[in-house]
Amino acid sequence: MKKGRGFAATLLCCCSALALFSCAYRGYEIMTEPPVEYTTQRLVFLGEDLPMPVAEVEFTQWIPAPPSETAPPAAASQWPGVTQGATAGPVTAPREPEPGGARYYTGISILPPAIAELRAFLETHPAAELEYDGGGALSAASKQGALNVVNSIRYIAGVPANVVWDDGSSNIAEAAAAIMVATGQVTHTPRKPADWPEASYRLAYQGCQGSNLAGLGTKYDIINRSMRLFLADADASNLKELGHRRWLLNPALGKSAIAAIGAYCAMTVTDNSNTQAGAQHSVVMYPGQVTPVEYFDGGWAWSVSFSAAYSVHGASVTVMRRGDGAAWQFGGGAADGDFSVSTHAYGQPGCVIFRPRGLQIQAGEIYDVQITGVTKNGADWPVRYTVQFL
Length: 390
Fold this sequence. Notes:
Layout: E1 24-25, E2 28-32, E3 40-45, E4 48-53, H1 115-123, H2 140-157, E5 164-165, H3 170-183, H4 198-209, E6 211-215, H5 222-232, H6 243-248, E7 255-256, E8 258-261, E9 264-268, E10 283-286, E11 290-291, E12 302-306, E13 310-311, E14 316-321, E15 327-331, E16 334-335, E17 337-342, E18 350-356, E19 366-372, E20 375-376, E21 379-380, E22 383-389
Parallel strand pairs: 5-7, 11-22
Antiparallel strand pairs: 1-2, 2-3, 3-4, 6-9, 8-9, 10-12, 12-18, 13-20, 14-15, 14-19, 15-16, 17-18, 19-22, 20-21
């Protein structure tokens, strides 16, 4: 959900063929007629029978561009402004977080989990399998699986990983997914489909306004793929803000409802009820300080979000890879990749966003990040932390 204007998690194109699906949802029923040249589907929504001509959309999930032929910047001989910390030499295997100079904790309160604890959490929170109960709603197992994906991402980031299902918003998320199916569009300001009752449209509009939305050309693994798209936010329209990711990692998010209809998914994200969120979550990084490579891609942007106490307008960033000492600079006239500073409130109101050019991450690598130019309540607030990929 992006405040102020609509945006899509992936670009959609209409084609002439139709990918058939037939499924039922609480308050909705989708029925597919035999295809001729096109197929008309009808949606039973809040007791109303609604016509829904639907065309298949091309699957255009974002794929990272090939690495730039331009080599990364020259290796840094030392970490700028730091006299202790990075351990020289190549990294050949993942290491447990070590005390003292092996990691940076300057300006943050989120500490990395032990690797064994992280792996145990992920193993006990398996991903979602799309199933429906006898009444047409997502099955209890699918709901829990969807929440497991959300909470696994949040655990990696170090924010409260205790988001629960919001029964009160289930119909809102379902309505948002339904109108995307009806219109074939992913937008936070949907048009009213012909013959839709006003009440149905209002509910769907409310759902689109307050949700992360995804459209993927097929319904295959729709929930897991949608969560990955929200986390990546890597297309040109989202890269400078990372709104989907920031809502997903908002420390205050305590409950959510997720709906998947056909190739469309909606996740409500504007809740702020998490009582475990506190001052220790005022600076949130992704990738987190210990991140499995399955949960990040070298072509994605890195992000550091800040609470309202911070000003990020003058931020500059240095990323250094241990082992070969390669470094990337952002801000202050330098841009070794994509760089932006956002002050729009997608969860937390400030965010520093940087995507190192040509980066291809591997398990076992360790990166050090330094951010300068940030202030907290008017005083300089440098941030330094370490990211270890598993």
